[in-house]
Write a structure and sequence with these properties.
By secondary structure, the chain is mainly α. The chain folds into 3 domains: 164 residues, Lysozyme, CATH 1.10.530.10; 50 residues, Roll (Membrane-bound Lytic Murein Transglycosylase D, Chain A); 43 residues, LysM domain (Membrane-bound Lytic Murein Transglycosylase D, Chain A, Roll), CATH 3.10.350.10. The strands form 3 sheets. A 3-stranded antiparallel β-sheet has the order 3-4-5, with helices on one face. Strands 1-2 form a two-stranded antiparallel sheet. A two-stranded antiparallel ribbon has the order 6-7. A hairpin with a 6-residue loop joins strand 1 and strand 2. The radius of gyration is 22 Å and the shape is globular.
């Protein structure tokens, strides 16, 4: 009898694991399909309205469930924009923060993307357009601070999507072309001040910096620096970013025992702050890769 129950238990576990994997695979496939379908729309909006394509795509993914939400499928509303008093177009009603709220309905998805851009031109969001168009982190934080959504982890979710799916690469596409910007062939020699913290050597990135430039100045290979910092090719560095010159640790040095999450932080940015490997940070906190830190969460560092 005990043998029977053990076998039954493992059958249930295998079935559950298989269904979980299948669901995860379907979700990833739908996200990649969404990006492939609408990236050109997002890039076009970026060139016309100066809104980062990465932000537009991340919001579209998040708000529409990769185009699979009922609001997206039936009303072509990919950004969860509500009617407001100035809306003269078609309307639909659905439960959100309150029951039976009014949402905008569009003729097609392109109209939804266009209206999203114009929606962000309101005075409420004017501070966003003073930000660098390549600084997706500040744009994400700014959207949350301006009240685009009530979710306290909204900025962090956008940043995670942008980094997981490398959406930042679309912010570098030149107007009228569909290719990445090429690095200059001749790189100037820069003076680098090397720091030490968390028992690790690092430098601070400058404005418009690249791993190639830092490698040139420090004697390392760019591919090794990317590996140490756990980033893919073409990851955009921002002014002040920490770039480690050696492999990060599996846990933080004392007395760093825990960290309280702030707005705009991701598991990656926290791992950089304390010199911990991203996978170790997930493991220490018993979180899977779908976890998005929310403002106020307390994460273990060792």
């Amino acid at each position: 009898m005990k043998t029977f129950f053990r076998l039954f238990f493992w059958v249930v576990v295998l079935v559950w694991s298989g269904s979980t994997y299948a669901e995860s695979h379907r979700r990833l496939s739908s996200y990649h399909k969404y990006i492939k379908t609408y990236k050109d729309l997002a890039i076009d909006q970026m060139h016309r309205y100066k809104i980062p394509a990465s932000i537009t795509l991340a919001q579209g993914l998040l708000e529409s469930g990769a185009g699979l939400s009922e609001l997206a499928r039936k009303s072509n509303n990919h950004f969860g924009i509500k009617c407001h008093s100035d809306w003269k177009g078609k309307k639909v009603y659905a439960d959100d923060d309150r029951r039976n709220e009014c949402f905008r309905k569009y003729k097609n998805v392109a109209d939804s993307y266009e209206d999203h851009s114009k929606f962000l031109l309101r005075p409420r969001y004017s501070s966003l357009f003073r930000l660098n168009i390549r600084n997706y982190k500040k744009w994400a934080k700014g959207l949350q601070k301006c009240g685009y959504a009530t979710d306290r982890s909204y900025a962090n979710k956008l940043i995670k999507l942008i980094e997981d799916y490398e959406l930042y690469e679309y912010d570098a596409v030149k107007k009228g072309r569909r290719e990445r910007e090429k690095e200059a062939e001749v790189l100037p020699v820069l003076k680098r001040e090397i720091f030490r913290a968390n028992g690790l050597l690092y430098v601070h990135a400058n404005d418009d910096d690249t791993f190639e430039k830092i490698a040139h100045d420090t004697g390392f290979k760019a591919k090794h620096l990317r590996k140490y910092n756990e980033v893919p090719d073409d990851f955009p560095l921002q002014d002040g970013d920490i770039v480690y010159l050696e492999k990060k640790k599996k846990k933080a040095d004392k007395p760093n025992y825990d960290h309280v999450v702030e707005v705009g932080e991701s598991m990656y940015s926290i791992s950089q702050q304390y010199g911990i490997q991203v996978k170790s940070l997930y493991k220490l906190n018993k979180k899977d890769e779908d976890y998005v830190p929310e403002e106020g969460d307390v994460l273990r560092l060792r």
